[in-house]
């Protein structure tokens, strides 16, 4: 997939990015360097903050991560020629303004305090239209956004985790339910489940994965934004059968609350434990997070569990634990222009 040639020829590669929260926002920003034909598939288990309040009061799919994905698609990266708006400065200005409006949170101490405007718009449209996907499409059309934002499932989900370290006996695990509770409870997360256990996938998301040229998974909160994508049965089947190139982007550092003390290798092992039939072409890690030597050799074997090639590159913002969108885009573009890895040589590694 040569992204530069694709834009010149008038057809962008079809990219699907799976995740949630700030990790998905970063991936979408990176992929905007490569294409305007992007579909974001978003986790729907958030139960905290504005999303949790709207979910509890209205029974809706939590809107927060969906809103962030819309905002990410609305504005092209600063260093990129605005292929979405054909270089029209006024259109760019309006997109940037409305992206800021969608993200803006009300202040004060009243009932609206803490609610982002985009959450309320999406909740209101969902009530009027009776469907979250239709509401997302209406917002996309209203603002002229190229690309799509879709929920991972058509119903709000709960995350339940087995957490050890909460009892005197470290071998005993306790069940903790709810994304916020899982992220804030002391102890070590061993395994997560979705409730309901066999949630319905979003049909449009499955179709997007089936027809994609490239599928990106991660980075993000490993147990609440990344692993859930392989726990929706019909979506996992789509990930298994798609002919798209698949790239797993691993976090730059352990996340307090969910993965304290996790090595990069440990991230891969826990994902594999949740979906041992899941295969990807490449596992992308930052070179500073995995020193050369024995640790990197272990990581190569862990990548082999997915039939994947380990790709180590400079993909971080210097001095910060944040992915650099332009660097990620450059590495992904190079991988897509190279020889395909269909993971047959590594499946038994």
From TrEMBL:
Domain of life: Bacteria
Pfam families, per the entry: CofD
Gene3D superfamilies found in the cross-reference section: CofD-like domains
Annotated keywords: Cytoplasm
Localization per record: Cytoplasm
Statement: the UniProt record of this protein carries the keyword Cytoplasm: yes
InterPro entries tied to this protein: CofD (IPR002882), CofD-like_dom_sf (IPR038136), Gluconeogen_factor (IPR010119)
Primary residence: cytoplasm
UniProt xrefs under HAMAP family: Gluconeogen_factor
Function: Required for morphogenesis under gluconeogenic growth conditions.
Family of the protein in this entry: Belongs to the gluconeogenesis factor family.
Protein name per Swiss-Prot or TrEMBL: Putative gluconeogenesis factor
